Amino acid sequence: MGEEKRGQETVRLYTRQNDKTLYQLKRDGRIINQRIYVQLHFGDIAPLFMESYDWFTKKASAMVAKPDDVHAPIWCSISRENCLKPIPGTVVYVLDVPKEQVIYFDDEKWDYVLNRIYLPKDMEDREAYRRHLKEIGVDNGFEFFQGRYKGMYPEEERRIRESWNRVFEIDRWSVFNVCGNIWEIRQEWVQRIVHPGEDVI
C-alpha cells in the first residue's frame, strides 16, 4: 500500500469529491473541506450529525495537526475496489499521501458516533453495557443526547463520549471498514483525477 516517493513513504488513497473542487485545486493548489459542505450534504439532519463531525475533527486534529483554515475532514478509501465511483457532478482523486498525514479510523465504528450511542470494546463489553442500562432503568441507549434522557444522565454522556475514541482503534483491517482521514488534498499528492464513466485504476 505504501511506496517510496522522493524519500518519503506514502500511501495510496481514493476520495470522491464534488467536481467544483477541480477549480479550487487549480486556483489554490489544494482542496480543503468546509464545514458548510458537510451541512449541505446532510440537509435538515445536519445539526445532529455536525456534533459528531465536530467531535471527530477535534480528536483527529490532536493526532495530526490540522491547518488553521480547515474546519472539516476529508475521508478517503484505502482501496480502489471499495472507493466510491465517480457519478455525474463528482470526480475521484487518486492520491499518494505522506504516511504521517493519514489518520486511520474504522468506518463501521463511526456509525456509533454518528448515532451518538455507546461504542463497545467487544461483545462482552456490549453485553455488560446492556446490563448496565437495564440496572439504571434505561431501555433505549439512543436517547441520552437527543430524547427523553437528554441532560438527565451526565455521567452516561461522558461514558459514551469516551467510548467513541475506539473509532481510531482498528481491530480488523480490511478495505471495507478502514478509512483514512486527511485534512487537505495537495496538488502534488494527486496522481490521477477520475471522471464519470472512467475506471478507477
Structure report:
- The chain is α+β, with helices and mostly antiparallel strands and 201 residues long.
- The protein has a domain of 138 residues: ADP-ribosylation fold.
- 31% of the residues lie in helices and 23% in strands.
- The chain has six helices and nine strands, in the order E-E-H-E-H-H-E-E-E-H-H-H-E-E-E.
- A four-stranded antiparallel β-sheet has the order 1-2-5-9, with no helix packed on it. Strands 4-7-6 form a three-stranded antiparallel β-sheet.
- Helix 2 runs antiparallel to helix 3.
- The longest helix is centred in the first third of the chain and has 16 residues.
- The radius of gyration is 19 Å and the shape is elongated.
- The two termini are 14 Å apart.
- The N terminus is likely disordered.
- Pfam families: DUF3841 (PF12952).
- This is DUF3841 domain-containing protein.
Strand content: 15-25%
| Largest sheet features | 4 strands, antiparallel
Outline type: elongated
Share of helix, binned? 25-40%
How many helix segments? 6
Identify the CATH architecture of one domain: Alpha-Beta Barrel
Beta strands, count: 9
Q: Helices and strands, in N-to-C order?
A: EEHEHHEEEHHHEEE
Report, as a whole number of angstroms, the end-to-end distance. Answer: 14 Å
Main CATH class of one domain: Alpha Beta
Q: What would the CATH topology of one domain be?
A: ADP-ribosylation fold
pLDDT < 50 runs, ≥5 residues: 1-6
Strand order of the largest sheet: 1-2-5-9
Mean of residue pLDDT values: 91
Radius of gyration: 19 Å
User: How would you classify the helix and strand content by structural class?
Assistant: alpha+beta
